[in-house]
């Protein structure tokens, strides 16, 4: 219709290309990608002030309208006076080792990068079926109605490829959010301003309210509040000490 508003940031989709992708995808047997190294996030739940600068930077980077949120800062409060507590949990896509979203995609639009384990979506192949949205236990995929596609955090792959860190990390004024090789983050062996050297024993892979990490092995660790701690992260022996130096983004 002549008066129908044009979609924001339309994704150029070719139906013939999508049909060919579906046909090709049906012939393939899903084989999990084992990345050369896996990048992940670390977030300090206690020192985060909940300013949401990371959310705003993410929306700005991805041109998101109000509604879809690739990154979310969640406020947790509880207790009874005088023993009350409050902390923040900051999450986006966790770029899981075994992403539940990936095998559900009928067109093969979702893929995991071999070099760093980042899970991304080829928007030109997305048909907006929202199966990935239903499969993800962490609510990462976000439906964008104006474009009839699903999208999510891709860890700012263009920034990663340029040797920089994602917009959310760069926007964090408290430096409580960071990325790095997840095996080193879990072992407390990665140098980051998101964690003090004395806080290694506070590293956890799950906080209260978060889906069971055993479902998909998400690439994220937290410095948890004592009231939010669920399980300690088993330290990996001398994380990557005997391995070649990983390619890491430029430090802030």
Automatic annotation (TrEMBL):
Coiled coil: none
Organism per entry: Thiothrix winogradskyi
Region (Disordered): 233-252
Highest taxon above the source species: Bacteria
PROSITE patterns hit by this protein: 4FE4S_FER_1 (PS00198), 4FE4S_FER_2 (PS51379)
Protein name listed in UniProt: 4Fe-4S dicluster domain-containing protein
Domain 4Fe-4S ferredoxin-type stretches: 40-69, 85-115, 117-146
Keyword annotations of the record: 4Fe-4S, Electron transport, Iron, Iron-sulfur, Metal-binding, Repeat, Transport
Entry annotated with the keyword Iron: yes
Compositionally skewed regions (Low complexity) per UniProt: 233-245
Family matches, as SUPFAM superfamilies: 4Fe-4S ferredoxins (SSF54862)
CDD domains, A to Z: DMSOR_beta_like
């Amino acid at each position: 219709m002549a008066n129908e508003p044009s979609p924001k940031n339309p994704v150029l989709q070719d139906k013939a290309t999508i049909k060919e992708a579906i046909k090709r995808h049906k012939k393939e047997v899903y084989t999990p990608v084992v990345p050369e190294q896996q990048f992940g996030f670390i977030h300090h739940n206690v020192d985060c002030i909940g300013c949401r600068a990371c959310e705003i930077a993410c929306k700005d980077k991805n041109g998101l309208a109000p509604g879809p949120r690739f990154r979310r800062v969640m406020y947790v409060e509880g207790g009874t006076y005088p023993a009350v507590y409050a902390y923040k949990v900051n999450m986006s896509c966790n770029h899981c080792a075994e992403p539940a979203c990936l095998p559900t995609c009928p067109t093969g639009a979702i893929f995991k990068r071999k070099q760093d384990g980042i899970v991304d979506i080829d928007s030109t192949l997305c048909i907006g079926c929202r199966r990935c949205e239903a499969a993800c236990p962490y609510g990462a995929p976000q439906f964008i109605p104006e474009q009839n596609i699903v999208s999510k955090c891709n860890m700012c792959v263009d920034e990663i490829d340029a040797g920089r860190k994602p917009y959310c990390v760069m926007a964090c004024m408290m430096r409580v959010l960071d990325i790095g090789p997840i095996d080193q983050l879990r072992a407390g062996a990665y140098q980051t301003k998101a964690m003090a050297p004395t806080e290694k024993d506070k590293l956890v892979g799950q906080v209260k309210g978060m889906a069971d990490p055993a479902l998909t092995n998400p690439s994220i660790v937290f410095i948890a509040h004592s009231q939010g701690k669920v399980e300690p992260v088993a330290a990996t022996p001398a994380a990557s000490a005997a391995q070649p130096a990983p390619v890491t983004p430029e430090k802030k």
